[in-house]
Prior knowledge:
The chain contains ten helices and 14 strands. The chain is α/β, with parallel strands linked by helices.
Amino acid sequence: MAKLMQPLVAASHRWVNINFKLSDAMLECLESYSPSLPFLEQLRIDLCTRQIYEEVPTIEIFANAPRLRVLRIGFNVTETFPKVPWSQIREFSSAGWEAGSITQHEIIVLMTGLERCQLYIEDEQVGNDAPEVHLPNLHSLSLRFSDSSDDSISILSKLRPPNLTNLSFQTNHPLSRSWTAIAKPLAAFLTGCAIRKLTLSAVGRLESVEEIDVVKVLRATPELEELQLLDLFTSLLARTGWSSFGALELESKGTPSLVPKLRLFELRYVPGLANDVMVNAICARSAAAASHLKTITIWGTKNQERSPLYNLDGDLLLQAYAQWDLLRDAGLNVRIVWDDIAQTTDRMGALSDWQRDWMGGELSQ
């Protein structure tokens, strides 16, 4: 194995964009190298095996890379593997790892110059005594959590990105039941940002959706221009929530009371869940003199598996099309997109395969 790695390392001074997928034997071979990498700008590194190493060798082959700015690491790759110039990193993507000696919060502390960041957080709790992380340059953040408990989202209370304009927030776990634990800390986090684009997604069968929780989150983003509600199995806004979405300020009948600057709205159609209320709320909002809403994108799921969860009742679907025509009559640009279940879950990062593939190219797009 060492002989196999030697020609690769010998050419390391020419590396610019390198992708590594390493085995145990490769780890041992790389441990002895510490070359200069004057041109390395992007590094993607993953492990062939899916386990936590009790004794991870300190790999210093990437330590001397003055141009390194983009780092993407796979599942269970920790900050001790490899050793990189963390303070230089501007774009960071992590597929997460199981609870261990290091947390993703401790990784972020090392990269205060971050501009774009994508994290998958699983079973991680940030303690009250953990330091706050000030990220003045961070403008795009994607957070995906294994569940929606207080402990899992505790990292929110420690991040301070005042110039954050784009946030994608998703709970992945199929047992996630409620956003009640999420609403308050997420709203508090958003209040300290400059959010222009927000994506909310709850992959799981939420049995009791508290509309007020989602409304509370949206009230924390008065400058919001783009909103995506990409929940797969339920609707994050039911009747009460849609009423708030369509309401106008009492003192100014021409200004929507919730996210007044919203221009683009993308959501998923769920058969039978307050579709009429949704359409009425959007129409009322678009009719307001000060409304900025111009484009609606509606995602629907094809019925390929004949499962009761995904079944699109014919009458409901025809009724939905008729209601969506009302949106067009109101002068809105309406896009209707149908996809299948596999594409939907892969697109939203809902499956465990997200950790395997970890969407390596997303940050630089």
